[in-house]
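Before a colleague's protein record goes any further, I have to sign it off. Thanks in advance; the entry in question is below:
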Amino acid sequence: MVISNLLKFGIQFALLLAFMGFYFLQGASIHPNAKMLLTPLLLLMMAALGLGGGIIISALTVKYRDLQVLISFGVQLMMYATPIIYPLSLVHSKYRWLVLANPMSPIVETFRFAFLGSGIFDPWHLAYSLAATCAILCIGVLLFNHVERSFMDTV
């Protein structure tokens, strides 16, 4: 499954690079830079954040079944709380800290900065995201190990 998804990602990434090259030759304002070398780290951070969050959710939904409905709603809200469809620079500086509290925001902004040359890149924000990702992953593993003993009794 992992190899299949990595192959799919490789094809999609090649298409992204091809479209970026096409638009760059057309004169679009795309300025890729050396931060593209952070791509493996950013992908690893996204995977760890997803794994940690998924482990936490799976451990909690065994006992609290109705949490699944809340999670699907929460994921949609988190998408709007992450600067995916809008750049972080559009967020008023007074509320920017709130968007940056989401550990996914610095990752998305670093991708935007690395591949498009626009956006906000701050190594401290990325370090915060890495620390939050590690914390979420550790909490997820600890919670799963704690709940694992009673999985069969609950299910």
Summary: The chain has two domains: 1-30, 32-154. The radius of gyration is 18 Å. The CA atoms of residues 6 and 12 lie 10 Å apart. Residues 32-154 form one domain.
